[in-house]
Design goal:
The structure holds 2 protein chains of 2 kinds.
Chain A lengths: L1 H10 L6 H4 L7 H6 L4 H31 L6 H11 L7 H37 L7 H20 L3 E2 L2 E2 L2 E2 L33 H30 L12 H32 L10 E2 L2 E2 L7 H35 L6 H14 L15 H13 L1 H15 L8 H24 L1 H7 L3 H31 L5 H27 L17 H38 L64
Antiparallel strand pairs in A: 1-2, 2-3, 4-5
Helix pairs in contact in A: 4-6, 4-7, 4-18, 6-7, 6-8, 6-9, 6-10, 6-16, 7-8, 8-9, 9-10, 9-11, 10-14, 10-16, 11-13, 13-14, 14-16, 14-17, 16-17, 17-18
Chain B lengths: L1 H30 L9 H28 L11 H34 L15 H30 L7 E8 L2 E6 L25 H12 L5 H9 L7 H27 L5 H5 L2 E4 L1 E5 L4 E7 L4 E5 L4 E5 L5 E5 L5 H8 L6 E5 L11 E7 L1 H10 L5 H6 L9 H4 L39
Classes of the chains: A mainly alpha, B alpha+beta.
Chain lengths: 624, 443
């Protein structure tokens, strides 16, 4: 009976008719591919948009890496992409360097790893793994994607701002010098971001950044609410909270983090918009910029930083948790073993989620914040290392005495655990305020978060794409190319980001346009930094070229890959009980009923080495 | 053009070639009746082995980086607190390197060791409370030690400085630093940003400077009188935009002027003498070895960060908020040059918070002197006190003239146009009688 109740819950709004015929019926191109309400299609839309944004952000990073390795040298490559405005004679301009860095960071953090990772996989997997016909609200889900798309578009267009115009269309008064995208770093600290006089990107470029993010946040909130409601209300019969796959737990906690923290960034952005457009003084006080004495008094730039990092730190876990969830599922399936310590894993996810809200101050140790407050944040921040360590050891124990099938997805998932360790341990140093003083805002930080957050999440995303590609497109990706892609990526990841630790320890600040200034005072540092910058850039170009293998494999396989079988990885979760061809409502007949947890791999007494969740317990069989 | 076409052609042909190879591969696997999901034992074992080799190569890479670069660029800490935090940093590095090697080795070794083998079933091992307890408690204990040691040092580093500490204010703006020493009374004069004029770049507050700021606001070409005169002149016709600009300017300046008059009314003249003997110093910051310094930081326009990598000290400078820290330099520049075997080495103060286009050039040389040299330098600055600069016409540009008029051209102008700047520039130490202005190409 319960199954029927769930069933009607999921449907009485948009497609109740499926309850009766469950069949295909013809839909127009627009309602099927563009304004689709179907969670699987929306997931794929998120993925494609994110892939495009990811490639763009990677290209931007290559552009500024070229400048860092060979400062001031003319490059046709730079000139080709940036033109005479931003790279006259092939040499990158100082301002545009900051613009590239800012947009690279913004896109990677928000558009690829938040929208792309959580948007794609939450959408595809939540209903499928829970046994629901669709998201709680298909319409809101569609809106969530289109908000994401619109914000991506605005962010992309902001790269082309020139004297207050985009492609010759005048947006603001023709201010000469109001050119380029936002240039205040992805953290957009005011006053730099609040004062158009301070840097050329703080005019129209910054306005577009803020509007893009406001729209992005709106979309992300709609999406997150949908995920939470779906997880709480639309689980199929027998799918108790403690029988949910860890992927769902990760998406669920991620969505809660998003709902609680993104509005704070929204308000921070709103106040900044007020400071910029309405003359308020939330973040401004006692400023003289470009010879103009401003009357703003009483505001505090630190207020913005508090608000920003109140989102900013949970954001790290919004990026990371879905990746950890995906890898939990992939590692268990391909080890042919239950994930070790399922309940401890859930506990860690919850603990990380909770702690992530009370650690934001570790980004602000040296901002002039009261040192006592700093001590509190040292304590809470280092606590997060405990659930993280538990997760790592549980992954390693899951591999122990497994029967590993090294699919490309599995390799990426193991790579994720490795980068999570390598990047995570340096966090211990950065969280220790006394040590942070000397390395704050240096390349050490850049190395740390690129490995622990950037690489881990990217590896998780690749793992997810390789693993669930058959579910998304009904075809298989090429395994050999997958292997090649993995090896290039992991070598590239370590080659790019590991040397950065040493650059940072030598005292190289981040966001410097040209490190040859070190030549003016310290030959040792100078030689070392210039050497390592070349090594890093060479690896970066290598890794970026390697992503072409992925792009080719991805797009080729969508159209020409071999047809997939229903359950290619012999997995237990419910998504593999649906037909390969996508249908509205996911299951042609009744919704499956769940009888067990998702990790019954190689259970003693069972014939096969996997038992899907919808198989009833055998007589005398214990659950786990 | 031709080469570009050829490159394009090669890329297209390459993609087609890969696509064809994939077809061949797929057809052959179809013949063998295996799908993409069936990972062959050969692939499985090969990748397992490669994973283990990878981690070994990674270690080689890490160790090579350590041996070749390690702490090279960082060098020895040149302040007392820096030596202590470096000790703690090394301890932390030992711990995290141990964790890094141990866990990565286990991870990749297991990947290699436990690849699928015919007839071997995975071991059903869902949980074990004892094990889980161990790896919750052990990290917790290690972290407790790290936290306690860290907080101890943090409290030391951020505590109040002693009464003897020399007070120096560092003023940051796009894109340079200015230092203000508290002078003989070791008291810094008050300041207010509204007092900033060409003659008083730091906005230092004295009865004179307040009056001067008021005059400046009222008179002059851009002063209030002039603006209201322009607006009231019926012969002048402005465009709507210009009219609006002038009106905004007028209201802004009226408000500032009102505040200045308030300031004048409340100003305590007794405080003037605190500011009078403050020494203003640009380009190079001179410090005395073995003396504690209490630094205050201000920012004029946007957030900057005062980063002294060699002294392991850093704090942001925030408009509208005075920040502070302290340290005691304990190795002089000369000693460090010997240690690093680099006779052009200098300590540096860099900006470490993104602040605009020329952010990367925003720096100030720091020279640590022995006590007698430091005193000689102080003496040479007798004519650079605030009251002397303020009262000397025309402007503070020549404030360093007494000490080093001959070397004005050696300093790279901050925010200048030079793209590549790899010359070693000696700080201005002519007061010591040194003629060591070596300008060498490096690299």
């Amino acid at each position: 009976m319960a199954a029927i109740t769930h069933d009607s819950h999921g449907h009485h709004d948009s497609h109740a008719h499926h309850d009766h015929d469950h069949g295909h019926h013809e839909e127009s191109f627009v309602s099927k591919y563009i304004f689709s309400h179907d969670h699987k299609m929306i997931g794929k839309q998120f993925l494609i948009t994110a892939v495009f944004m990811g490639v763009l952000a990677m290209l931007l990073s290559i552009l500024f890496r070229i400048q860092l390795a060979w400062p001031g040298e003319s490059s046709d490559f730079l000139h080709f992409f940036l033109g005479d405005d931003w790279a006259p004679k092939g040499v990158l301009k100082e301002d545009m360097y900051l613009g590239l860095v800012t947009i690279h960071g913004t896109i990677m953090v928000f558009f690829l790893l938040t929208g792309g990772l959580s948007g794609t996989f939450s959408n595809i997997l939540i209903p499928l793994q829970l046994g629901a016909r669709d998201m709680a609200s298909g319409f809101l889900n569609m809106l969530s994607y289109w908000f994401f798309f619109l914000s991506s578009l605005i962010m992309f267009l902001s790269l082309f701002v020139h004297d207050g115009a985009i492609f010759g269309i005048q947006i603001t008064d023709a201010n000469v010098g109001d050119s380029g995208p936002a240039m205040a770093g992805w953290t957009i600290y005011p006053p730099l971001s609040a004062l158009p006089q301070a840097v050329s990107g703080s005019g129209l470029g910054m306005t577009m950044w803020l509007f893009s993010m406001a729209i992005f946040i709106a979309g992300s909130l709609i999406g997150s609410l949908n995920y939470i409601v779906t997880v709480l209300n639309l689980r199929t019969k027998g799918m108790t909270m403690t029988r949910m796959p860890l992927t769902i737990w990760a998406f669920f906690v991620t969505a809660i983090l998003g709902v609680l923290s993104f509005p704070v960034l929204f308000s921070a952005a709103l106040l900044l918009i007020m400071d910029r457009l309405a003359g308020t003084s939330f973040y401004l006080s006692d400023i003289i910029v470009n010879g103009e004495m401003l009357t703003n008094h009483g505001g505090s730039p630190l207020l913005f930083q508090h608000l920003f990092w109140f989102l900013g730190h949970p954001e790290v876990y919004i990026v990371l948790l879905p990746a950890l969830g995906l890898s939990s599922e992939i590692i268990a399936t391909n080890s042919r073993k239950p994930i070790f310590g399922y309940r401890a894993m859930i506990g860690s996810i919850l603990a990380i989620g909770f702690l992530s809200f009370i650690v934001w101050g570790h980004h602000m140790f040296i901002t002039g914040m009261n040192p006592f407050l700093g001590s509190v944040f040292v304590f809470t921040t280092l606590l997060i290392a405990i659930p993280s360590a538990v997760k790592v050891f549980n992954y390693i124990t899951t591999l122990w005495r497994g029967s590993l099938v090294l699919t490309p997805a599995m390799l990426f998932a193991i790579g994720l655990v490795s980068t999570f360790i390598t990047g995570g341990v340096t966090g211990i140093i950065l969280a220790d305020s006394a040590l942070d003083i000397a390395i704050h805002d240096t390349y050490f930080v850049v190395a740390h978060f690129h490995i622990v957050m950037g690489m881990s999440a990217v590896f998780g995303m690749f793992a997810g794409v390789y693993h669930w590609f058959p579910k998304m497109y009904g075809r298989m990706m090429n395994t050999r190319l997958g292997y090649a892609h993995f090896w290039v990526t992991i070598i590239g990841a370590y080659g790019v980001f590991f040397p950065m630790h040493f650059v940072g320890i030598a005292g190289a600040p981040r966001r410097y346009y040209d490190y040859s200034v070190f030549g003016q005072f310290d030959t040792d540092s100078y030689n070392m930094i210039m050497d390592l910058n070349v090594i890093v850039t060479v690896f970066a170009i290598f890794a970026a070229l390697g992503q072409l293998i992925f792009l080719f494999n991805f797009f080729y396989s969508i159209y020409r890959g071999p047809k997939a079988v229903q359950n290619p990885w012999k997995s237990n979760t419910l998504e593999w009980t649906t037909p390969v061809e996508h249908i509205h409502g996911n299951w042609p007949g009744e919704l499956p009923t769940v009888h067990r947890w998702p990790y019954d791999y190689s259970k003693p007494g069972a014939e096969e080495d996997f038992i899907p969740q919808n198989v009833p317990l055998a007589e005398g069989e214990e659950e786990h | 053009m031709i080469t570009k076409l050829i490159i394009l052609l090669i890329i297209v042909l390459g993609v087609i070639a890969i696509a064809q190879l994939m077809r061949v591969y797929e057809l052959s696997s179809k013949l063998r009746k295996t799908g993409e999901q069936d990972i062959s034992d050969r692939d499985n074992n090969l990748n397992g082995r490669m994973m283990f080799i990878f981690v070994l190569l990674l270690y080689v890479f890490v160790i090579w980086l350590m041996m070749k670069y390690g702490w090279t660029g960082r060098g020895e800490a040149a302040s007392t607190i820096g030596k202590e935090t470096d000790w703690l940093l090394n301890l932390n590095f030992i711990i995290i390197f141990a964790v890094f090697f141990l866990t990565n080795t286990l991870l990749f070794y297991f990947t290699y060791k436990y690849v699928r083998k015919a007839g071997v079933k995975a071991y059903y091992f869902p949980h074990n409370n004892k094990l889980e307890m161990i790896w919750t408690v052990v990290p917790a204990c290690v972290l407790a030690v790290i936290i306690i040691l860290g907080l101890k040092k943090w409290n030391e580093a951020t505590s109040e400085s002693g009464k003897e500490a020399i007070r120096v204010e560092l003023f940051s703006k796009q894109f340079d630093w200015t230092a203000r020493y508290a002078g003989t009374d070791n008291k810094l004069g008050r300041f207010d940003y509204k007092l900033t004029t060409d003659k008083n770049e730091l906005g230092i507050m004295t009865s004179q400077s307040i009056q001067s700021a008021i005059d400046n606001m009222e008179g002059g070409v851009t002063g209030l009188d002039s603006i209201s005169f322009k607006l009231n002149d019926e012969n002048l016709v402005f465009s709507a935009i210009d009219q609006q600009k002038l009106e905004t300017d007028l209201s802004r300046k009226t408000r500032l002027l009102r505040l200045l008059y308030q300031m004048k009314e409340h100003h305590d003249k007794k405080l003037d003498k605190d500011a009078a003997d403050d020494i203003i110093q640009k380009d190079t910051l001179f410090l005395c070895k073995g003396r504690e310094y209490e630094f205050n930081f201000r920012a004029k326009d946007v957030i900057h960060s005062a980063y002294f990598p060699h002294f392991r000290a850093q704090v942001n400078t925030v408009p509208g908020l005075t920040t502070r820290f302290k340290f005691t330099p304990d190795i002089s520049t000369d000693e460090m040059r010997v240690k690093k075997n680099d006779d052009k080495f200098n300590y540096i103060l860099m900006c470490n918070k993104i602040c605009g286009g020329a952010h990367y050039k925003m720096k100030m040389f720091v020279v640590v002197l022995e006590e007698d040299e430091y005193n000689r330098w102080l003496k040479s600055k007798e004519n650079s006190t605030f009251d002397k600069i303020f009262n000397a016409a025309p402007a503070p540009a020549a404030e360093d003239a007494s000490a080093d008029a001959a070397e004005n051209d050696t300093q790279t102008p901050a925010g200048g146009e030079e793209k590549k700047d790899t010359t070693m520039v000696e700080p201005k130490t002519a007061f010591l009688g040194r003629k060591s202005l070596i300008i060498n190409k490096v690299g």
